[in-house]
Amino acid sequence: MRPALCQICSLNSPFEKDVEEYAAGQCRNIEIWFTKLEQFLESHTTDDVKRLLQQNDITASVASYQGGLLTSQADARREAWELFERRLSLCRELNIGVLVVACDIGLPLSQQDVERARISLLDAAQRAERTGVRLALEFQARSSFGNNLQTAAVLVAEVSSSHLGICLDAFHYFIGPSKSEDLAFLTKDNLFHVQLCDIADVPREFATDSDRILPGEGDIPLESIIDRLREIQYDGCVSIEIMNPQIWQVPAIQFGEIGMTSLRKFLRMND
Predict the structure, then answer these.
(1) Spatial distance between the Cα atoms of 31 and 158, rounded to a whole number of angstroms
(2) Which of 26, 76, 106, 248 is at a distance of 20 to 30 A from 231, taking alpha carbons?
């Protein structure tokens, strides 16, 4: 397992500062937040990004996230897929191996929506294959379909592409209808990315992204997830992903140190 930090954890910090200050905390893998990268590229080139990463000995292993692909229609669908194509190109240029795709299917839900989602996933996987990028489907706990690990695994299996796998976000796993037994659906072949966080003292029904805290400080049974990752010999990235406004106030250099210390300890990197 490769510990990583997602840039969303330091939302108020610019792209380049994240890279420099996470590196100071001994972070060697980051999960790119697309909006930050795209803002940086308004005044820089992809070569600048490559130099920045190389100078700080950091690998951009994963990028998050792309939404709106599965069941959107008309103009919204066209815009989402055009953005997706641009982001695939960015990933190829920057050697980002995994792009997270949200299973964001809203209400009302019809059988046509389910079929459209399946066709969209196949299309997305085929486009990703042409660019050498792998897509990690992140089930969303409050999505009308694809809101749990089992369904995500089935959708991925139906597409049957080596370029489509699963993103396991501990938050969505815990607050949604997933069961601990669903971890058995994870394999070394279908698990492309893992995102960890925790929540404390909040009923799952009311938990929001802003309730996310550092892993190991709350109520999510993360040990069972880590045990499964070890069992399948997962060797991809495990990142901390936190969208908590209070944590956003922590300087990137401080979060980098705290986050990496917490993550390495939790992943039992010294075992």
Answers:
(1) 27
(2) 26
Cα(199)–Cα(203) distance, integer angstroms? 9
Taking only the tens place, the pLDDT of each residue in 35-76 is 999 999 999 999 999 999 999 999 999 999 999 999 999 999
DSSP, collapsed to helix, strand or coil, labels residue 237 as: strand
* Three-state secondary structure call for residue 50: helix
Q: Distance (Å, rounded) from C-alpha 229 to C-alpha 267? A: 10
Query: Which helix or strand (DSSP H or E) is residue 22 part of?
Result: helix 15-24
59-66/98-103 β-pairing: parallel
Residue type, 28: R
Q: What is the 3-state secondary structure (H, E, C) of 101-155?
A: EEECCCCCCCHHHHHHHHHHHHHHHHHHHHHCCEEEEEECCCCCCCCCHHHHHHH
CATH code of the domain made up of 2-266: 3.20.20.150
Q: What's the CA dihedral at 67, 175, 257, 133 to 10 degrees?
A: -30
User: What is the rounded (10 degree) CA torsion for 234, 237, 242, 243?
Assistant: -120
Contacts of 144 (CB under 8 A, 6+ apart): 105, 106, 107, 108, 109, 113
Retrieve residue 227's tokens: 């045990």
What whole-number distance in Å separates Cα of residue 65 and Cα of residue 14? 18
pLDDT along the chain (271 residues), means of 10: 96 96 95 97 98 97 97 95 98 98 93 94 98 98 96 97 98 97 98 97 94 94 95 97 96 95 80 41
Residue at token pair 């019809």: 110
Tokens of 159: 């597409």
